[in-house]
Amino acid sequence: MADALNPSAADRLTRFNNGLRSEIERLEKKHGCRIGVSFRDDEIPFEFGYRGNELFHAASTMKVPVMIEVFHNVEQGRMKLDDTVLLNPICQSMIDNSDFECDAEKYLTARLGQQETILKLTEQMIVVSDNLATNLLIRMVTPQRITATMRALGAKDGFVLRGVQDELAYRAGVSNKLTPNDLTTLMAAIADDKAGTPESCEAMREILFAQEHNTMIPAQLPAGTRVAHKTGSITKIRHDTAIVYTDKGRYVVTIMTDGIENEEESTALVADLSRRIYEGRDDLRPLR
User: Fold this and answer.
1) Domain with 185 in it: what CATH number?
2) What is the mean pLDDT of each run of 10 residues along the chain (288 residues)?
3) Domain assignment present for 198
4) How many domains does the structure of the chain reveal?
5) Which of 22, 163, 186, 196 could cross-link 135 (Cys pair, CB 3.0–4.6 Å)?
6) Which residue segment(s) compose the domain that 260 sits in?
């Protein structure tokens, strides 16, 4: 792409690339961690990747491909969004089918033993990252179909193998993993109406807009910036993947961190990088 740009645009592109890469390398050295970043702006057009194809423990970002597969199943007639499911917190390990109890957030906890719609479970899975909702949905759509749909959408390296809180599987080394590029590809597919029908993608975007965990990618962006996103957090891991809508167009960004013990430090790191990307993007428009 650089050959097609005028010298001034090429200089700005190089400055953005080198500056962001240097900052990530500095942060990795400072925190003794691994950071993955994937940025895509089809309007400039421009892409940036740092450890973009490296696998990270997905944490709750794997709920994005689960959501996509739910809507895929609806489109194929396997289920309806207003179908209901019994809220039973007892789940089965993928290792030996043994029982374990899965946590639920406030809304589903109050409704245990009752029926809930697939749409509400999908919303709870994303908006408050409810684990029970996730496991109930995965049981219906299956990890095999989730991963197959990911491949069809261009997410080529990651995989969903199991539900969440399956400690037996975790101890056996079986975890869901995604790359920054995988997540950016999936979020871009939602943004571009390619992850399903336009109606399904619009519904998925609205669910992502309702996200209640907003301390990472959206945190330091200008007030009023609309961000459709999904976070993922477990011990030493903080991720966020987002479609960011600005008055100068839309872009998709994923930031993944692995190895920082202090949650406040890793959360602030993601928020700082998000702001840097937002601000640096302005200098790239227009490139030509």
Assistant:
1) 3.40.710.10
2) 58 89 97 98 89 98 98 98 98 95 97 98 98 98 98 97 95 96 98 98 98 98 96 97 94 98 97 96 68
3) yes
4) 1
5) 163
6) 1-54+179-288
User: Which pLDDT belongs to residue 203?
Assistant: 98
pLDDT digits (tens, 9 = 90+) for 36-86: 999 999 888 889 999 999 999 999 999 999 999 999 999 999 999 999 999
Residue 87 lies in a domain: no
Residue pointed to by tokens 């749909």: 149
